[in-house]
Design brief:
Elements: E1 2-3, E2 5-8, H1 13-19, H2 32-36, E3 42-47, H3 50-58, H4 62-72, E4 78-82, H5 95-107, E5 112-115, H6 126-134, E6 141-147, H7 156-169, E7 173-178, H8 185-199, E8 204-208, H9 215-224, E9 229-232, H10 246-255, E10 258-259, H11 264-283, H12 289-292, H13 297-301, H14 305-317, H15 324-337, H16 347-361, H17 370-376, H18 389-396, H19 416-424, H20 431-439, H21 441-465
Helix pairs in contact: 5-6, 5-20, 7-8, 8-9, 14-16, 15-16, 19-20, 20-21
Bound molecules: cobalt (II) ion (CO).
């Protein structure tokens, strides 16, 4: 029997892609028991931007949110996205922080941790992997994730090598993550066949987005080539910058003889439930028509749609739209100088801004941003290909070697927990509270203060009542 399984993304990536991760718990809690019986491989519901958004915009405790989902969905694998040593942000944390974060994620209900590094520098995902293994229970899955990008150095052989490395490191599954939705069916075929030939015994997952319109074709081709799991979103939360639709792929693949494990009635019920939720956010303007449409520019210009919008906004601000074509031509040059990093946050912004600056100044690298300087110093990790040596010498001095971004033994632990305790005092009641502060200090203080005030109010109120 041909078989493919589904990861449902409505609670994380679909919500993040279409409505900036602003889906409060009240808007999905009632459907969780139905989702629990739908037969998904997993439900992606945490990590990524959900943590920050809970504290910053939704006034929710992200840990509490996870526990409530866990309680309502005892049967389903719950999945999160983790940016390796950066956890859910963009800075490197000490190993002890990464370890504790993973421990608490598993303790509060996560089963599948999908771990990636923006540069595919796998040293940056080692600590998170080791912690996952250390605190694993029988349901835990450590998924090694590769950020997919196109460049002269990103050949099928290179991706196959990355998969071999992830397997050797001890990951249970491998995920190809096409953030920009630019993977074509032909590319998927070459990649999946190559990877399946080399490391066929490890389950392979494809994550892509509908942004450029490629996703359905690419997913179908990937399934035909033997991919084991695909990421999809319930249909009313699919398309545009989100994932392809769960039900649509279910019908197409079932007719082709694939066993999906999905319950047709349940997945349709999930969609019926979310339809009015989506409508509410269209009406409020949180979901824009722009995020729901198809934009093929990423295929034309070979840069992700979001990066292009950024660049156009920058040029408009500076009244320099006449330099647009020149800046576009400059992007691949800057990328080459930086050793072809995947164009994902924060690298997409860094490359885009530098290209614009190079063109506006009329001289390349006359002005270099601090981020790009730090990149050349090696603070983001190792680039996929050698960086421009002359430029690097100019930035860090010809006699200096780039720093090694890997947290060295001497930096294995820091004083984050101490700082968190000092900063929060009695506001902190759990290790989870401390961890929230370490990740997002300002938002956490605000959230925990509000929590305390609310409780004091309740206490006063109930005394008066009695
Ligand atoms: Co995604």
């Amino acid at each position: 029997m041909k078989r493919v399984q589904f990861t449902e993304t409505v609670l994380r990536d679909a919500n993040q892609s279409l409505m900036a991760t602003r889906l409060p718990r009240d808007d999905f809690e009632k459907i969780l028991p139905v989702m629990d019986g739908a037969g998904y491989y997993s439900v992606e519901c945490w990590g990524g931007a959900t943590f920050d958004s809970c504290l910053r915009y939704l006034n929710e405790d992200p840990w509490e949110r996870l526990r409530r989902i866990r309680e309502a969905m005892p049967r389903t694998r719950l999945q999160m996205l983790l940016r390796g040593q950066n956890l859910l942000g963009y800075k490197h944390y000490h190993d002890d922080v990464v370890e504790k974060f993973v421990e608490l994620s598993l303790k509060n209900g996560i089963d599948v941790i999908r771990i990636f590094d923006a540069l595919n520098d796998f040293r940056n995902i080692r600590t998170a992997l080791d912690a996952t293994k250390k605190y694993a229970n029988t349901r835990t899955v450590a998924s090694g994730c590769i950020a997919y990008t196109q460049s002269p150095v990103h050949t099928v052989d290179k991706y196959v090598d990355m998969c071999r490395e992830l397997k050797r490191m001890g990951f249970d599954t491998i995920c190809l993550k096409d953030m920009a939705g630019t993977m074509s069916p032909a590319e998927a075929e070459g990649l999946i066949k190559g990877i399946k030939d080399a490391v066929g015994d490890i389950p392979l997952i494809l994550h892509t987005h509908c942004t450029t319109g490629m996703a359905y074709m690419t997913l179908l081709k990937a399934v035909e080539c033997g991919v084991d799991v695909i990421d999809t979103a319930t249909s009313c939360f699919s398309g545009g910058t989100s994932q392809a639709a769960t039900e649509t792929l279910y019908y197409a693949l079932t007719q082709m003889g694939y066993e999906t494990g999905l319950d047709e009635a349940a997945i349709n019920k999930v969609n019926d439930f979310f339809k009015p939720v989506k409508q509410k956010y269209i009406d409020s303007g949180l979901i824009s028509s722009k995020s729901m449409g198809t934009d093929s520019r990423a295929l034309v210009y070979k840069v992700p749609g979001g990066m292009l919008s950024n660049m156009i906004a920058n040029l408009r601000d500076m009244n320099a739209m006449d330099k647009f074509d020149e800046a576009l031509v400059e992007i691949p040059n800057v990328r080459r100088d930086l050793g072809y990093p995947p164009l994902v946050t924060p690298l997409s912004q860094m490359v885009g801004n530098q290209a614009v600056v190079n063109v506006l100044m009329g001289q390349r690298y006359k002005q270099i941003s601090n981020e790009v300087k730090n990149y050349f110093r090696g603070e983001y990790g190792i680039a996929p290909a050698p960086v421009d040596r002359e430029l690097q010498d100019r930035i860090i001095g010809a006699d200096n070697e780039p720093v090694d971004c890997r947290i060295e033994d001497s930096r294995r632990t820091g004083k984050e927990f101490e700082d968190a305790r000092a900063a929060l005092g009695k506001l902190a009641r759990s290790e989870e509270d401390l961890m929230s502060w370490i990740c997002y200090p300002d938002q956490t203080v605000k959230f925990l203060t509000a929590r305390r005030e609310l409780e004091e109010h309740h206490v006063r109120y109930s005394i008066v009542e009695e």
